[in-house]
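Late entry, evening session. Most of the bench is empty. Finally got around to the prediction I had been postponing all week. Sequence below, unchanged from the version circulated by S.P.
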Amino acid sequence: MIITPLNTSSPAGRKILALLHDRFRLADDKCREMVTEIIDNIRNQGDQALIDYTRKFDSPDFTITQLQVSEQEMTEAFSLVSDDFKETLDFAIERIQSFHEHEKEESWIKTRENGIITGRLVNPVDSAGLYVPGGQGGQTPLVSSVLMNGIPAGIAGVARRVMVTPSDQNGKINPALLVAAGKIGICEIYKCGSAWAIAALAYGTASIAPVDVIVGPGNQYVTEAKRQVSGRVRIDMIAGPSEVLIIADETANPAYIAADMLAQAEHDPQALAMVVTTSQQLATDTVGELEKQLALLSRAGIAQKSLADRGVILVAASLSEAIDIANDLAAEHLELMVEDPFKWMTKIKHAGAIFLGSHVPESTGDYVAGPNHVLPTMGTARFSSALGVETFVKKTSIISYSKEALQADSAHIIKLAKLEGLTAHANSVAIRLDE
């Protein structure tokens, strides 16, 4: 049996829940040390280190002249992809664009009768770096990552959007990625990946000017590099392995549950597919469906290892208990395969994205539904949100006082300043009262 269902009240079930609650992990010492070295080399050696790493790991004959994607390469890319692909791409772009347009925030000002004006200016950052993983050496281009990263940045008004992605062994980028970038107006693209690409975006080289924000998924080296440069630049989040939690009652279809678990498991051996159901029979039937469907997958080996090592099926006493577990685990993707999903949705406090009902597999959100698929993992949905337009903007407070308004507030300001031992703060107000 690939997964053994457990009761949530059993010792084994309680142990699993405790481990899932505490699943946040950073990179190990070896990874951290390697990434630190890579970042230092990029800072000190710039383009030379960038080319050396690219030659070592991606393209043996890579040269500096190949680093930036040329206009000719962009033009050629459009001739190399099918019209069907372009049609699907346009469909996805429209959906994602339409959804993210609603996330835009406006600047605002509040005035008081006594002459105080306060408010907030909302402005985009000047530049954003968009990391797109290589996708098995370019064989499986992650087009959706281009769209989910680039479209919100464009809506925010970021003037300079920079895409980085590893080249294949011949120094090429899959044309589907270039077409996706071109369709949404990204024209500054560099052929570099992993931690050295993140370092170049954060610190800059002779060829790549630094950016203000870095977003996008990647392996543990990309994630650790983002963590190490965070503070110098903003990052979207520290992401772990992708995960799904399916809450299911007796009305759910075990074939659907198994299919969605496998869709998660095929990402990575570390991917986490979880089910909490109120039906023992459904749990048993889901295991059977997993074993039946697994044999049909192109990435069966990856999915099988993921499920065998990390897959979880738990049987809860009630839907209320299952929802409590969902809130405790704060999963990246939460599917509610229950009789009345909208009723139970109102009880969810923590999740990256919620999928309501039996006809909305996670893949809808990955590609064309509209919401962003870059979501918090490892329980960080307790305090973190999906990547969105707000990731690419910054907010500046504005304050204006008339002389009369300052006189009216002065006693309170001086009292608080003196309480904190900051006499210069108090004097900066008092000196204006004597005029």
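Two things to note before I forget:
The chain has a mean pLDDT of 96.
Residues 401-433 form one domain.
Will write this up properly tomorrow.
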